[in-house]
Every structure is written in structure tokens, then in C-alpha cells.
Amino acid sequence: MKKSIFNLKNKTVGDVSLNKDIFGVITLPDIIHQYIRYQNAKSRQGSHKTKSRSEVSGRSKKPFSQKGTGNARQGSNKPPNFRGGAVSMGPVNRNYTFNLNKKEKKLALKSALSTKLNEDKIIFIDSFEIESFKTKELYIDLKKFNYETALFIYSETGLNKNFKLASSNIPKISILNQKGVNVKDLITYDKIFIEQKSIDELTKRLS
User: Fold this and answer.
1) Domain 2-44+98-206, CATH 3.30.70.2190 — does that match?
2) What are phi and psi of 62, to 5 degrees?
3) H helices then E strands: how many in the chain?
4) How far apart, in whole angstroms, are the C-alpha atoms of residue 178 and residue 116?
5) How is the beta sheet containing 173-177 ordered, strand by strand?
6) Engineering a disulfide at 148: which of 4, 58, 179, 190 sits with its beta carbon 3.0 to 4.6 angstroms away?
7) Can you give the residue ranges of every domain in the chain?
8) How far is CA 14 from the centre of its chain?
9) Could you read off the pLDDT of 52-81 as tens digits, one per residue?
């Protein structure tokens, strides 16, 4: 499977061969959905908490006599039906995370990458090296790609400092090391720009 490689000025500079086992997988909506649920669950704090009857301030003594007052009998002023009382069956601290095995994670990433490629939403760039750190110059070049939101995936060797500085003020784009590539970002962003050096690293990681 061959795809064109572009430079940051949207001009073709060559071709690249892609592994079909990584970029040619059929779309699996169920496994993609499961991976996104897994990511969202990991990001939840689970710190919600309400006070139970043993935690609210108050007296455990009967608030009034059992009989003769005309009121319903009560054992204390801590039940939920009292003002300032406990919350009945309220939320408590909990951990929302669940396990997803390595095969499922890899398959979800492959499926997301393949889906984006089939939609012509992945653009392979020869290098993110730029000479100037000025945002305006990079912004003019990137407008040629006609994107709404964009994710730039760079290689393990590091990101060009000028590109990082220039892109930091451009709205609706993000940069990400190939180690951090995940399904949620691949699905969320309109177009994915992958540095040429990252292709082999991604292929090795997902093989």
C-alpha cells in the first residue's frame, strides 16, 4: 500500500509504503467504542462522595419521646428525612477503570488509523522541521491543507523547537508524540498529520 508524502507547503515529495496489517484493517466500531470507554473511565476521578448516617453531624439520641407527641417515631436526627441528615444511597468514592488487554488496544488503534486513511484524513509529512518560529508563516502553510482540526504526530527523535513554538498559538491543532497516539484523539481530530519517521515507529509498536 503506497501513499504520497507531502511537505508542510502541501507539495508532494515522494511515496511511502504502508503495512496493510496496520493501515489496512477493517473498521471495527465496537472495539473503537470500547477503547474510548476505557480512556474516559481512566480520566474519571471518582471522588464524588456524600455523607452517610455515621458521618453527618448530629445526635444519636431520640429527638423526642416515642409516644405522646403526635409525630412519627424517630431514633435520631440523622436519617435522610431530616434537614441536615444523611443522603440515602448516595455516591461514594470509587475507581471507574477497567482492563483492556493489549491485543484489543492494538486492534482499536489499527482500526482507527485505517478508518482515517480510508477517509483520506491522514496526511504523511516528510518532516516538521521549519526555519522560523513565527506562527503566521506556519499558519499560512497549514491553511493549504484545508483542515478543521488537526493532530500532528511526531517521531521519537523529538520535535523541532521552531515548529513547537510556531504551532502553540494556532487554534484547533495539537501535537503528540507517537508513543501517546490513542483512539480518542484519532477520532476527535479532523485530520491527522504523521511525520515520516513516525510511520516505522508506529508500525513497530503495533506489530
Assistant:
1) no
2) -60, 130
3) 7, 6
4) 16
5) 12-17, 2-6, 122-125, 191-195, 150-154, 173-177
6) 190
7) 2-44+98-206, 47-95
8) 32
9) 999 999 888 898 999 999 999 999 999 998
